Amino acid sequence: MLINYIQAAMHKATYEFLQDSDAAFYGEIPDCPGVWSTGDTLEDCRENVQDALEGWLVLGLRLGHTLPVIDGIDLNAPQQEVA
Known about the structure:
Pfam families: UPF0150 (PF21748). InterPro entries: TTHA0281-like, TTHA1013/TTHA0281-like. By secondary structure, the protein is an alpha+beta fold. Helices cover 39% and strands 14% of the residues. The protein is elongated, with a radius of gyration of 15 Å.
């Protein structure tokens, strides 16, 4: 399920060419706040965005953050009812 989530999130990534910058490309995943990166090539940028996403997910899961549901994939633990 984690791999499917990463793949779905990466399909939502957006990229732009930066003309006046040391890095040529900027990429982000709008559904995942704070997940962005740059790279000298589009492929470098894509790989860097995926690395940022993976780190963001690991930290979010470890800290118990509510993660966005992407394409119906929900990584959040179900809420237990208190009796």
